[in-house]
Amino acid sequence: MGQDEGRGQSAALAGARATALALEANVRRVIQGKDEVVRLALLALHAGGHLLIEDVPGTGKTVLARAIARSLDLRFRRVQCTQDLLPSDVTGVSVFDPRTLDFTFREGPVFTDVLLADEVNRATPRAQSALLECMEERQVTVDGQTHPLTAGFFVVATQNPVELEGTFPLPEAQLDRFALQVRLGYPDPADLAVILEDQRRGHPLDALAPVAGAEDLRALRAAVAEVALDASLRRYVADLVAATREAPGVVLGASPRAALWLARVGRARALVLGRDFALPDDLQAVAHAVLDHRLILEPRARLAGRTAAAITDEVLAQVPVPVVPTGPPPGP
To answer: What φ, ψ does residue 54 adopt, rounded to 5°?
Structure first.
């Protein structure tokens, strides 16, 4: 049996995989030539995490977020982050109503399904921190009152790595809230030629129709949680994360939260490939997207040319890879 074939696939897993593949195909209609990035972005969604996109302007960051929301017929709202953005501009505010002599809570843009925090590093640390509780606990606390967000709440944040004037780098606590970080990059000439033709009379996003809904997303996430992760793979994840903390030149390595996301996103990849069990390949394929943005290097290491990606490569090469059974489970 090939390693991308199912092992006793259940109807639920097969249905979840069909949803995941339909979402990928739909989003790829508007994001040309970036199939692996699209898959990684959707894996963050399937695993229940949030996505950070770091890239230069004009590469399709906003289009990707909108395409994901439209493909699932989810509510979408956008926050344009600037230096004068206040936490209440994100979460909402209690307003005094003179007619009732009471305060009424007015919801902010986080009360949606998919939130685009555009150029998040242009917001001040105070405004950035407004997303911490939202992303981790799916709730907002204002004036001592807690307001729940939707269970499928998904944040897509973007930042421009080139324009640094007037920006505030995301602190480690904020970076650690993002399950994955991806970069779209420029399209190659052939894909750019296709984009030029596709947008001759309008943007393909305008004609993009949903292929699934909120219920399908809930079923997909439930199926991801059922994908088996062998005990040897759980130890492999723990060893990979620990190795990032011991790597030369690293001030801050990956956290236990990073280990959780590595396992969850690895499970999501296994499901998309049609398996009800994860393999080392699944973890290795998503390791850079999960780990790189969490690694903080010493200034001396950065000056010497060391990068987070190089450290992840070293860790993947050094940590022994377990042998995981890929056949049917043993009988009783």
So the answer is: -110, 115
Tally of structural domains, the chain: 1
Rg of the chain (C-alpha set): 21
For 61-79, how does the pLDDT look when each residue is reduced to its tens digit (9 = 90+)? 999 999 999 999 999 999 9
Residue 319 DSSP SS3? coil
pLDDT digits (tens, 9 = 90+) for 112-159: 999 999 999 999 999 998 898 999 999 998 888 899 999 889 999 999
Query: CB count, 10 Å around CB of 251?
Result: 12
How long is the chain? 332
**Full residue range of the structural domain in which residue 112 is found:** 50-178
Give the 3-state secondary structure of residue 87.
helix
List the CATH number of the domain containing 116: 3.40.50.300
Query: What is the predicted pLDDT for the residue at 38?
Result: 96
Q: Residues with Cβ < 8 Å from 190, sequence gap 6 or more?
A: 33
Q: Are 27 and 276 in contact (CB under 8 A)?
A: no
The pLDDT, as a whole number, for residue 327 is: 52
Q: Is 65 contained in some domain?
A: yes
Contacts (Cβ under 8 Å, ≥6 apart) of 47 = 179, 221, 224, 261, 264, 265, 267, 268
DSSP annotation string for 225-293? HHSB--HHHHHHHHHHHHHHHHSTTEEE---HHHHHHHHHHHHHHHHHTT-SB--HHHHHHHHHHHHGG
Res 331: pLDDT: 39
Domain assignment present for 140:
yes
Give dist(CA 43, CA 64) in Å, integer.
13
Query: What is the distance in angstroms between the CA of the first residue and the CA of the last residue of the chain?
Result: 21
Burial class (CB in 10 A: 0-12, 13-18, 19+), 127: buried
The count of C-alpha atoms lying within 13 angstroms of the C-alpha of 240, restricted to the half-sphere facing its C-beta, is 28
What are 115's strand-pairing partners?
77, 155
Q: Report yes or no on 213 lying in a domain.
A: no
